[in-house]
Amino acid sequence: MDLFLSAAAEEVLPIYDYRLEVLKERCRIFRDKTASSVPVGSLYDDVYHTVVVAPATSNTVAKCAFGISDTLPTNVFAQAGKLAIPGIVFACDTAPVVITKAPKEWVELRPRNIELENVERLRRIDHCIVVETPAQLEQTLDARLAELSLKWNTLSS
Asked: CA-to-CA distance for 112 and 1, rounded, in angstroms?
């Protein structure tokens, strides 16, 4: 597994007590430091069988739904789709009421119609599966690995 981080993700990781140094022990990390998303080129080498965008904020969902690829994760998603590599998106704003973990507490959010419409638009994108919960993400990944006759392991790439 490789981790492709947007600049925003890199900013919020410490807020949720995730440290890059610890993550680097488990996987390779690509950071959004190039204007042209250079790491996306690795998709063309037939190395990846699946792309996961998780969690996908309403901003990322909107960009993916409308074909905007101006961050590393949205560019990876777009290029994967063009290569028919399945993309699994764990969208945050999927229901009229969403309970989510903020840095210090759980909060209740009420996504606007535009966010809900963008999730529905994303569901119609070729090679894209939208999931709504961590459990659904895990089930979808399990199914994808079974489809490929692969199993989970703890080794990094």
From this structure: 33
Token code pair at residue 65: 């739904």
Identify which of 92, 56, 58 has the alpha carbon closest to the alpha carbon of residue 77: 56
Q: What is the 3-state secondary structure (H, E, C) of the chain?
A: CEEEECHHHHHHCHHHCCCHHHHHHHCEEEECCCCCCHHHHHHHHCCCCCEEEEEECHHHHHHHHCCCCCCHHHHHHHHHHHCCCCEEEEECCCCCCEEEECCCCEEEECCCHHHHHHHHHHHCCCCEEEECCHHHHHHHHHHHHHHCCCCCCCCCC
pLDDT in tens, 16-31: 889 999 999 989 998 8
Distance between CA atoms of 76 and 51, rounded to whole angstroms? Answer: 8
Question: Do 7 and 27 meet the contact criterion of CB atoms below 8 Å apart?
Answer: no
**pTM for this prediction:** 0.87
Q: What is the pLDDT of residues 57-85, one digit of tens each?
A: 999 999 999 999 988 889 999 999 999 99
Question: Are the C-beta atoms of residues 89 and 142 closer than 8 Å to each other?
Answer: no
